[in-house]
């Protein structure tokens, strides 16, 4: 007996969409990608972190405080690419209007 209420194809499609977004998102930082990705992961998982230093204490942020500072001080993001990635994600699937 299967525990999931979703058909396999729906779960597979959702996983493929999340993987595609992650791959496209990881290409947006042009410097210090690792630090930006760790910070983003920590922000998305944070429950009440008030400062960037608080984020470094989360399990999801596997780098230290030095990497976080380096990412914030010396990192770069291709903003146009990020905007395109987010817009494409918003326009796909059944959650198209979820961010408005």
Automatic annotation (TrEMBL):
<protein>
    <recommendedName>
        <fullName>Transposase IS701-like DDE domain-containing protein</fullName>
    </recommendedName>
</protein>
<dbReference type="Pfam" id="PF13546">
    <property type="entry name" value="DDE_5"/>
</dbReference>
<dbReference type="InterPro" id="IPR038721">
    <property type="entry name" value="IS701-like_DDE_dom"/>
</dbReference>
<feature type="domain" description="Transposase IS701-like DDE">
    <location>
        <begin position="25"/>
        <end position="88"/>
    </location>
</feature>
């Amino acid at each position: 007996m299967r525990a999931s209420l979703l058909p396999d194809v729906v779960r597979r499609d959702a996983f493929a969409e999340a993987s595609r977004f992650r791959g496209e998102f990881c290409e947006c930082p042009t410097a210090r990608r690792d630090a930006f990705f760790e910070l983003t992961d920590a922000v998305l998982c944070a429950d009440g972190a008030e400062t960037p230093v608080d984020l470094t204490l989360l399990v999801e942020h596997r780098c230290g405080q030095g990497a976080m500072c380096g990412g914030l001080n010396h990192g770069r993001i291709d903003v146009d690419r990020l905007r395109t990635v987010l817009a494409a994600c918003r326009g796909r699937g059944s959650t198209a209007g979820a961010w408005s």
